[in-house]
Design brief:
The structure is a single chain. With about 140 residues, the chain is an alpha+beta fold. Helix 1 packs across helix 2, helix 2 crosses helix 5 and helix 4 packs across helix 5. The structure holds FE2/S2 (inorganic) cluster. The site of FE2/S2 (inorganic) cluster has 10 residues, from helix 2 and helix 5.
Length: about 140
């Protein structure tokens, strides 16, 4: 029923855990099965330096989280946003049809973490932009 790769990522999941001080955290859930996936990222200069996950869910959800984190590690934020559940499934040599939604959860979890990163970045850049109306005329008086 499951490919060897799925079994491997289920039995030996990569990147399990939590990143302290992560600057991107995403959490998604599937209302139907009740599974929850949480992704932590350490992003520097738009590059995903580290990524970890915690999944409370089925074996396929654990395998897809593991594979998805492997696939986005070291990638840019933009590249990670392009990760599809189909690509994760292909990398795992397929999933049974009734388990496809588990890979969708992995794609959504990655996206949710990146959305969080972008949101935090947006807030930070707003904060550092001062009044937002600076014409720099005041600097001329310094000469
Ligand atoms: Fe819920 Fe797999 S059954 S994610």
């Amino acid at each position: 029923m499951y490919s060897e790769k799925v079994m491997d990522h289920f039995a030996n999941p990569r990147n399990v855990g939590e990143i302290e001080g992560a600057n991107a955290v995403g959490e998604v859930g599937n209302a139907k099965c009740g599974d929850i996936m949480k992704i932590y990222m350490d992003i520097e200069d738009d590059i995903i330096k580290d990524v970890k996950f915690k999944t409370f869910g089925c074996g396929a959800a654990i395998a897809t989280s593991s594979m998805a984190t492997e696939m986005v590690k070291g990638k840019t934020v933009k590249e990670a946003l392009e990760l599809t559940n189909k690509a994760v499934m292909e990398a795992l040599d397929g999933l049974p049809p009734e388990k496809i939604h588990c890979s969708v959860l992995a794609e959504e979890a990655i996206r949710s973490a990146i959305e969080d990163y972008n949101k935090r970045k947006g807030i930070e850049s707003e904060d550092s932009s001062g009044c937002g109306f600076c014409c720099k005329k005041c600097y001329k008086n310094e000469d």
